[in-house]
Amino acid sequence: MQAFEATSHYFDQAARILDLTDNIRTLLITPDREVRVEVVIEMDSGQIGNFIGYRVQHDNARGPFKGGLRYHPLVDQDEARSLASLMTWKTALVDLPYGGAKGGINCDPAKLSRGELERLTRRFTEKIHDVIGPLKDIPAPDMGTDAQVMAWIMNEYGKFAGFTPACVTGKPVEFHGSVGREAATGYGVAIVTREALARRKASIAGTSFAIQGFGNVGSHTARFLWRQGAKIVAVSDAYGAVTNPGGIDIAELDKHVAVARKVVGFKGGEPTTNEQLLKMPVDVLIPAALGGVFDRELARAVQAKMIVEAANSPTWPEADEVFNARGIPVVPDILANAGGVIVSYFEWVQNLQYFRWSLERIQSEEESRLVTALHEVYDTAEQLKVPLRTAAFYIAINRVSRAHALGGI
Ligand code: NAD
Q: Is 402 within a domain?
């Protein structure tokens, strides 16, 4: 099964309850536009570098297309299509005036110099500038891209359209970005986790966690949970994992990672493997790295009591069935990691108004949107007697199909 098929499977589970006609189902599932461009740059060596870039615009019935740009060797049309569709449901679920999009460039950013990365970004922006823009499609960072890449996009786009900071979000704070954006996804994961635990009459303090991934999302999630008294017993990254049954001191781990650039070698824990981390008997397991982590076999071996999907698409449908059958609740990606796009929305609003908000305002408005969405999902799941993911898709599909009906064909 490929990524888009998996997302469509989750869509169908909820669409069946909504009793959509075949035509409406096709309208909602089919991407609006798919752009594939050749991006040619001069490498530092003087050679020509050929890359392929994608932008898939899935649906814009509720507002401009919105979604990240990924620079990674596995980026392809199918992955962009799947993630673009997820963005449509995510923005609808947290009630933002956006649709969904995703894109990226098939490349390995770790092997590119800063100059090559800048030339690649500028050439890609030049190729897609006529289909993006503040009221058309607003890119943002994802794996392999960061605030600097967004700054280059804004600057390059400005050559065609003039000063337009709202054409992209996730920019550096001192270059029209928003305070709170960098930590927004991890902050949101912590809020969602707190509320999900509250539905089980539990709290973050004293609850045990294992977190896969210690990049932007994983590390901020760990920090916010730890400050609220969480016992984080294992953390991993691409190089390995560390565990401490008594709880890892995240402030000390941060100091180690700042120097070593990986969690491996941390003195405040014992080495372990990524695979062991995913099978640990913890209260909450948080995948915050890649997609496609849980297959059927791994889902059977998971011992966590709850899963919070900080990463996009970590669970294949076959694993989702196992989690459902075993009664392990899965807080789905389109809810768990929506904090990032919520604060991207606040950045866009600030850019359109040429006005800045405080961190307190950003965090309290992010929190209130996520708390509302989480309880809507739990209440819907209880009413319909369906898993949380199906409830989340149900709410989102309802909103998007309503917008199509109101706007007209
Ligand atoms: P990142 O590149 O900053 O971090 C990824 C982390 O995963 C790194 O620590 C990396 O070492 C680790 N990793 C890679 N392969 C691994 C493996 N096999 N086992 C364990 N760890 C591994 O990326 P990020 O921005 O933190 O994004 C992580 C996930 O969250 C992605 O699925 C992304 O789509 C999703 N997401 C990110 C945001 C955001 O605002 N950054 C928003 C929503 C969703």
A: no
Backbone angles phi, psi at 316, to 5 degrees: -70, 150
- Give the pLDDT mean for 75-83: 95
**Domain residues for 281?**
184-336
344 lines ligand 1 (CB under 6 A): no
Is there a domain that residue 401 lies in? no
71 CB-near residues (< 8 Å, 6+ apart): 104, 105, 107, 109, 117, 143, 144, 145, 149
Q: Tell me if 185 CB under 6 Å of ligand 1.
A: yes
Tell me the torsion sign for CA atoms 253, 254, 258, 261: positive
The Cα 221–Cα 354 span in angstroms is: 30
31 or 21: which leads in pLDDT: 31
Structural domains counted in the chain = 2
CATH of the domain at 235: 3.40.50.720
* Closest C-alpha to ligand 1, atom 41: 142
Give residue-wise pLDDT tens across range 39-59.
999 999 999 999 999 999 999
- Same domain for 127 and 217? no
Give the length of the chain. Answer: 409
pLDDT tens, residue by residue, 223-259: 999 999 999 999 999 999 999 999 999 999 999 999 9
Q: Are residues 207 and 316 in the same domain?
A: yes
229 and 142 in a single domain? The answer is no
Whether the model clears a pTM of 0.85, i.e. scores above it, the answer is yes
The percent of residues in the chain predicted with pLDDT above 90, rounded, is 97
102 catalytically annotated = yes
Q: Active site residue: 102, 136, 201, 231, which one?
A: 102
Which residue in the block uniquely carries the two structure tokens 């050559």?
A: 159
Return the CATH number at 76. Answer: 3.40.50.10860
CB of residue 311 inside a 6 A radius of ligand 1: yes
Distance 20 CA to ligand 1 centre (A): 34
